[in-house]
Amino acid sequence: MNTEKIEEILAREEIQIAPYWKRVVAHIIDDLLLSMVIIGIYWDSIIQNTGNAEAILAIVSNSWLVLYGIRILYHWLFVQYYGATIGKIVVKIRILEVELLDNPSLKQALVRSLLRAFSEFLMYLPFFYIFANPLRRGLHDMATNTLVVELKHYNA
User: Fold this and answer.
1) Closest by Cα among 87, 70, 91 to 28
2) Full-prediction pTM beyond 0.70?
3) Is 95 helix (H, G, I), strand (E, B) or coil?
4) Rounded CA gap, 153 and 116, in Å?
5) Are 148 and 94 in contact (CB under 8 A)?
6) In sequence order, which ranges of 15-95 are alpha helices (DSSP H)?
7) Can you tell me whether residue 45 is helix, strand or coil?
């Protein structure tokens, strides 16, 4: 679906694209949460090697596979079931599948999570595409036909 068609749908449904700052804050929150999980997993090893910087660096460098596995699982499940990670929930943004304007499917969420993790592995360089795209879609969003949008504010 082309950009004009997506913009037309968003205007009709009164849906706003998520601002950059909310996406950055959500990303920081998610990274902090995932870092705490990883530290928790390796806590005993870290405590046993207190004072031995070399051993702690070895633990950290050997944990990258676990880190990416947890990261992929976290993003996949939260996006598929809730349409957002915890960070996105906190800043009130979510991920929508463009065609149905609903949570991404199981496959879309998995592919999005894998591509997002791959972008992080490439030192976040593919994320810069978000700044060049009028819909603020990263490559992981374009490949899975998703958008990051703001939640509607309702007046009670």
Assistant:
1) 87
2) yes
3) strand
4) 28
5) yes
6) 20-41, 43-48, 53-62, 64-82, 86-91
7) helix
